[in-house]
Amino acid sequence: MRMVVPAEGCVFDEPSLCYFQDLNGRSQLMAAGKAVLAMVDRMPKTFSVRRPLARGVLQDIEATTALLAHGLASISGRTRRSRPRALIGLPADATKAEANALLAAADDAGIGRIELIREPFAAAIGAGLPVGEARASMIVECGAGTTEIAVFSIDGQCKTRSVRLGGQSLDEALLEYLQTQHNFLIGRLTAENLKRELSARTGKSSPAEDVVEVKGRDLRTGLPGMLTLQASTFDPVFEKHFGRFAEATRVVLGELSPDLSADLLDERIIATGGGISAHFLADAIERECGVSVTVAKDASGCVARGLQRLMEN
Questions:
Q1: What is the DSSP letter of 256?
Q2: What is the pLDDT of residues 20-61, one digit of tens each?
């Protein structure tokens, strides 16, 4: 979760995680944000790590309220109002019920007047796309739980499509691949670190020669173990994962009017979202659709930066 303040930028950037303890049948918040990251899959039975969001939308009102309150407390020295006004991003295909649940959680956390902004529009603003002009601007925004494809013109959304998959589902795909193909079990945090390591190795002169070491549990022996694999071993996992988004992008392109399609020959598609995912996303779309895709500068911060600009203007 990121929080930005007008004229200051991003002042809070921590994982969307909450740590609760079961006390006499009632759950009590013990920690939130980055303090919880190392606790994932390591807690005793009386504790639980809860994720406020699933597939990009709210799934746990109590955890969402706790995380928002934690964020507000962390930046309390920067804000002078007890119930600040806020713009909050949400997926383009979020239902009315999902939007209302987010509003209720934000209100309970101590936020005052709230306006919900569709994340693809905020990302387009943050990436500097000319969304207000009479020509097509296209963005593919890959978040933790949702990837969204949108085309804008004259401050309006012409076409949009959402895929409820993102960075977290790639973690799950890596975990599943190791379990099914190598009889090796890893945790979610290890899967995320593996994803980051594999992403950092892309672009080297001989990536096929690179190797990665993965620690976990060998399912054949039931004992702790370590796998040493070539980085290229995981290429099919990445290709399958990002191929789904490329297919969705192709569908959107096929639904555009001829004039909007013509605009995109001159205006590149912009990929935003997690810095890890954006480059793979751009490559997959170029292969599938035959159009140029540019990764936005500071791709992971486009939504937050767009919300900041909207608040300032």
A1: S
A2: 988 877 888 888 988 898 888 887 877 888 888 876 678 899
Q: What residue ranges in the chain does DSSP mark as E strands?
A: 2-5, 9-13, 18-23, 26-32, 47-50, 53-54, 57-58, 86-90, 114-118, 137-142, 147-153, 156-163, 184-185, 211-218, 223-230, 269-273, 293-295
User: Which of 218, 176, 215, 217 is CA-nearest to residue 197?
Assistant: 215
Measured at the alpha carbon of residue 162, what is the angle toward residues 160 and 163, in degrees to the nearest 5? 150
User: Which residue ranges in the chain fall short of pLDDT 50?
Assistant: 79, 205
What Rg, from alpha-carbon coordinates, does the chain have? 21
Distance CA 48, CA 57 (A): 20
Calculate the alpha carbon distances from 249 to 20, 48, 98, 112, 252 in Å. 39, 37, 25, 37, 5
